[in-house]
Amino acid sequence: MTSPQDLYAILLTRSEPRRGYPLWFPEPSTTLPPDYRDVGLRTGDVGVVTEHGSFDVFFNICLPRNHRLHSTYGVPDVFRQINLSDHDSQSFEPSDYRGCVVATQSIHQRNLTIGVAAGAPAIAAVQGGLGIGFTSSSKEGALLILPEGADQHDLRNLRVFEQEAMRCGKAWYEFAIQVLGRRIGPDSLYLITGCHKTSSWSLATFNQRSGSSGFNAQFTASPIINGNINAAYTWQMTTAVPRRTGPDPYDATKKNQTVFIRGYKIAIREKILLAFLRGDVAVSYKSPNAVPPKIQSYRYVGSPGSEDTQSGGSHSDMVGQPGDETDIVLHQMNAEKVNNFGTTPRKALIKCVY
Question: Which of 74, 207, 289, 326 makes the best surface tag, with the fewest CB within 10 Å?
Answer without folding.
Answer: 289
